[in-house]
Amino acid sequence: MQITKTIEEARRQVEICNACRYCESFCSVFPAINRERHFSDGDITQLANLCHNCRGCYYACQYTEPHEFKVNIPKAMAEVRQESWQDYAVPAMAAKTFHKSGVLMALAVIAALAFILLLFQNAAPAAGEAQAAGFYGVLPHNAMIAVFIPAFFLPIISIAISLRRYWKSIGGERLRLAHFTNALGSVAKLKDLSGGQGEGCNFEDEDRFSNARRWSHQAIMYGFLLCFASTSVATIMHYFFNMPAPYPLFSLPKLLGITGGVILSLGTLSMASLKLRADKNLGDARVWGGEMGFVLLLFVVSTTGLALYMLGSTGAMPALLAIHLASVLAFFLLTPFSKMIHGFYRLASLLRDAQIKAKL
User: Fold this and answer.
1) Measured between alpha carbons, how far is 154 from 136 in angstroms, rounded to an integer?
2) What does R_g of the chain's alpha carbons equal in angstroms?
3) Which residues lie across from 210 on neighbouring strands?
4) Do 66 and 191 belong together in one domain?
5) Mind listing the pLDDT tens digit for each residue in 70-89?
6) CB atoms within 10 A of CB 347
7) Sign for the pseudo-dihedral over CA of 167, 170, 174, 177
8) Mean per-residue pLDDT, 98-104
9) What's the confidence (pLDDT) of residue 134?
10) 54 and 178 inside one domain
């Protein structure tokens, strides 16, 4: 990652924080700051990806504007964090485009993929009979697999290259089990969104503490994991137990999928509401469209999945199937360039933080 004015400004502010130390107990960022005396570019980048943008430090700080120091750690960290996602992405131009126009890009990709899938359906013989046979009658199982395998593994390769670059830039070393235990525990609880005193963060309403953002994050994370588990279980049932879809309501794939879809839809709606109310000057305002695009993408995936379940036996099924599969494909294809990558980078930053603490 190149040395930029963004990193230089973040370093200036971090050095002020290191001298003050008032916010030492707020989250993982400030103890990490207070451990150091000098900050390399990699240090600043790692600190930025540790930050959850909860904004508690901003409202506690005595050096924010109009003070001449003009400290705004949430904004400085957000800008460095965003640059790291863009600069290490493969290809970087796709990430820059999504971060600038995420909503438009997400909708365009979904529309294009849905159109292609609808064309494929219309070209298939005996469309009426195919519809009566269910999802696989409209789009054969082997065709789905042929489409989704590249859409799943190509983004994984892109993310792996991106993470390797990032890990090298922040001085990452060989990992041990203890590092994963420490980092994953923090991820599971979203610990840093609870604030220094466990009262929550200040994201949506200035200096009022709230756990709404933490709950929204947890709903999105666990809703997504339940949906992913539903697909995984269905795959195992299909290939290992010769139990192809469709599945009844009280089957494991349906229970996991419906529960996850509802939680994910509610979580994304809540997150969108919070972002609309939040102060854009405490984040990277340049990429607000990309953040909303990512939330929209997850919302479309979950709600079209639920709609497909409810209306799967009606004439709307072929169109809904095309839209839902297109949104899922778009989600996977855009993952290396959307805010979804933050989860991977934050985990890497927590692992690096665990490595550093283990040496103390």
Assistant:
1) 24
2) 22
3) 201
4) no
5) 999 999 999 999 999 988 99
6) 17
7) negative
8) 88
9) 62
10) no
Q: Where is the domain boundary, 63, 86, 109?
A: 86
State the residue for tokens 């460095």. 80
Torsions phi, psi for 339 (to 5 deg): -70, -10
Residue length of the chain? 360
**Largest pairwise CA distance in the chain:** 73
CB atoms within 10 A of CB 203: 27
22: which DSSP letter?
A: T
pTM for this model (two decimals): 0.84
DSSP one-letter code for 147: H
Amino acid at site 191: K
Range of the domain at 153: 89-359
Residue 306's Cβ-side half-sphere holds a number of Cα atoms within 13 Å equal to 15
Are 14 and 103 part of one and the same domain?
no
**Type of residue found at 196:** G
Count structural domains, the chain.
Answer: 2
Alpha carbon distance 40, 32 (integer Å) = 13
Tokens of 165: 């670059």
Q: What is the dihedral of CA 153, 155, 160, 165, to 10 degrees?
A: 160
Residues 6+ apart with CB under 8 A from 15: 39
Q: Which two tokens stand for residue 355?
A: 């490595």
